[in-house]
């Protein structure tokens, strides 16, 4: 989903009455004493003169699995790109393990949406994974690199895929390989941008099981952008709901089913052009 | 055996086969990246830009042979223009190339028309279809020099270029300067196209870029294997095509391309089985 893509049609107004935005709603937050892997501090992003994000602030502790939710056009992909260092915030900052976003690339693993890469490229799973390990495409893979790639694929249940060409993989297998690619550098944070979009039901179910294992880990933090309630229920330790601004941040059961969140989000749509100007 | 030895005992055929194999191999190597990026049309576009450059050289009073030196910077500029439009204009490669293709060719026609009536007449057919059998020692030295320079540039950037070809976004996240590589790839393609135009001509040069790479794509499962196959097909196709054209007494450039085309058909048939 592109941040500047046309916004999806609105839900019927009669279900949720408009509610004024009075600031982010903080439910149960992480313990202050925990090590912070990602800190988003009043991040605002403007693209092509259009305000996409306004003062989004939250943080992710070590090992926490966060689902980033919000309607289409809410700025989720823009936020991920800012975390990856592909977009500079107009104001505010994102820090990963204390370093500015984009300068700690080995600390961040990234699983893109399935549709965004060339699936007809003549490459094997091994080459793709080792490319992220080296930072360049491998001409030859050393035995130690192969062993490391194999171990990472084993971790995501895809060991048998190691020498398979990417072109022959199913949607679920492809995403396993991309997850192994993201994990090969032992990152502190893995970013998953709707990884199961376009994947068949079986592949989606299997992939969610792997994400649930990551969620159970105390070492690896994750941000999963998803519209899938099953994914939130299965994996999320915390949910961040944005719609241009931070709407709510808390535990999954606190946010799921909150009518007021939808009300705030749709109310925000009505006032999309009334976001305050940048603060100098 | 005489079938092989006799043609290549003649100096003009020796020069032709060396030039053909060098250009064939180099175009094929660049073609692997160009085809994989969905820019197959770029060879045609840059060849027509080269025509505009050659025509500009002729307008400025150069001979057909020396006009190449005007065509070289002209075509490189066009290639950088295409890369710029692709990057900034968020335009598809075929659209950007199509626009530059048409404008450059129109400029070429305009430049030829603006030449004074007293100017020496130009054999446009030579420019369009090349003259590999007329390659001089100087031409061969230029071709081989360009080959070495481009091969070194590709060897030094291969692993980054491959990553950026697979996915520019992921490559950028790994710290690769994708934009610089994009410009470099198109500029190198422009240089090779201008050199190749002298051998196979404007009309056929893009086949040298596209056909070996497209054939190799059906045979190799990894990018470096595809590249090795493509170079072997480009080099082998040029040599075999020249040999056939000699014995059949037909146009060399066209026979080389038809040989490459036959190889493509064979690979396609084998793949279907």
Structure notes:
The complex is a heterodimer of chains A (280) and B (273). Chain A has 8 helices and 11 strands. Chain A has 280 residues and is α/β, with parallel strands linked by helices. Chain A has a domain at 25-116 and 187-274: 3-Layer(aba) Sandwich (Rossmann fold). Chain A has a 7-stranded mixed beta sheet with strand order 1-11-10-4-9-8-7, sandwiched between helices. A 4-stranded antiparallel beta sheet of chain A has the order 3-2-5-6, covered by helices on one side. Chain A is globular. Chain A starts with 24 loop residues before the first strand and ends in a 10-residue tail after the last helix. The relative contact order of chain A is 0.20. Mean pLDDT of chain A is 81; it is low at 1-17 and 266-280. Chain B has 273 residues and is an all-alpha fold. Chain B has one domain (11-112, 122-266): ABC transporter involved in vitamin B12 uptake, BtuC. Helices cover 81% and strands 0% of the residues of chain B. Chain B has helices at residues 2-8, 11-36, 42-59, 68-88, 93-114, 124-129, 137-166, 168-173, 178-200, 205-219, 223-248, 252-272. The radius of gyration of chain B is 18 Å and the shape is globular. The two termini of chain B are 34 Å apart. Classes of the chains: A alpha/beta (280), B mainly alpha (273). The interface between A and B is medium-sized, with 24 and 25 residues.
């Amino acid at each position: 989903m592109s941040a500047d893509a046309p916004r999806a049609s609105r839900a019927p107004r009669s279900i949720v009455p408009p509610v004024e935005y009075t600031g982010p709603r903080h439910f149960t937050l992480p313990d202050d004493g925990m090590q912070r892997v990602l800190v988003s501090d009043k991040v605002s992003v403007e693209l092509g003169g259009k305000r996409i994000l306004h003062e989004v602030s939250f943080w992710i502790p070590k090992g926490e699995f966060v689902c980033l939710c919000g309607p289409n056009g809410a700025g989720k992909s823009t936020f991920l790109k800012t975390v990856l260092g592909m977009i500079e915030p107009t104001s505010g900052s994102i820090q990963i393990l204390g370093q500015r976003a984009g300068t700690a690339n080995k600390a961040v693993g990234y699983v893109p949406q399935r549709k965004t890469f060339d699936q007809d490229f003549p490459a094997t799973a091994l080459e793709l994974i080792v490319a992220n390990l080296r930072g360049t495409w491998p001409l030859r893979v050393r035995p130690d690199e192969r062993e490391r790639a194999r171990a990472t694929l084993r971790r995501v249940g895809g060991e048998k895929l190691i020498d398979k060409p990417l072109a022959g993989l199913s949607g679920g297998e492809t995403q396993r390989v991309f997850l192994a690619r993201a994990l090969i550098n032992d990152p502190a944070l893995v970013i998953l941008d709707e990884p199961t979009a376009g994947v068949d039901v079986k592949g989606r179910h299997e992939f969610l099981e792997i994400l649930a294992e990551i969620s159970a880990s105390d070492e690896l933090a994750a941000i999963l952008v998803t519209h899938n309630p099953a994914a939130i229920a299965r994996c999320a330790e915390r949910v961040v709901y944005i719609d241009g601004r931070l709407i709510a941040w808390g535990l999954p059961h606190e946010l799921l089913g909150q009518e007021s969140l939808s009300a705030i989000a749709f109310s925000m749509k009505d006032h999309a052009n009334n976001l305050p100007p940048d603060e100098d | 055996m005489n079938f092989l030895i006799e043609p290549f005992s003649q100096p003009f055929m020796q020069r032709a086969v060396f030039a053909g194999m060098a250009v064939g191999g180099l175009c094929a190597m660049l073609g692997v990246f160009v085809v994989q990026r969905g820019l197959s049309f770029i060879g045609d576009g840059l060849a027509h830009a080269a025509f505009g450059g050659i025509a500009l050289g002729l307008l400025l009073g150069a001979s057909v042979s020396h006009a190449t030196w005007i065509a070289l910077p002209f075509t490189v500029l066009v290639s950088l223009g295409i890369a710029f439009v692709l990057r900034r204009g968020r335009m598809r490669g075929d659209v950007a190339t199509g626009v530059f293709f048409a404008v450059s060719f129109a400029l070429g026609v305009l430049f030829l028309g603006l030449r004074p009536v007293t100017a020496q007449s130009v054999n446009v057919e030579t420019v369009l279809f090349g003259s590999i059998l007329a390659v001089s020692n100087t031409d061969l030295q230029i071709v081989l020099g360009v080959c070495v320079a481009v091969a070194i540039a590709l060897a030094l950037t291969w692993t980054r270029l491959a990553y950026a070809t697979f996915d520019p976004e992921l490559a950028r996240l790994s710290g690769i300067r994708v934009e610089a590589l994009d410009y470099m790839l198109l500029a190198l393609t422009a240089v090779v196209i201008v050199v190749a135009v002298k051998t196979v001509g404007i009309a056929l040069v893009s086949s040298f870029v596209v056909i070996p790479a497209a054939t190799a794509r059906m045979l190799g499962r990894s990018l470096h294997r595809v590249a090795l196959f493509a170079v072997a097909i480009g080099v082998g196709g040029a040599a075999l095509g020249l040999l056939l054209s000699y014995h059949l007494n037909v146009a060399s450039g066209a026979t080389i391309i038809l040989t490459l085309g036959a190889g493509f058909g064979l690979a396609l048939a084998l793949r279907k089985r």
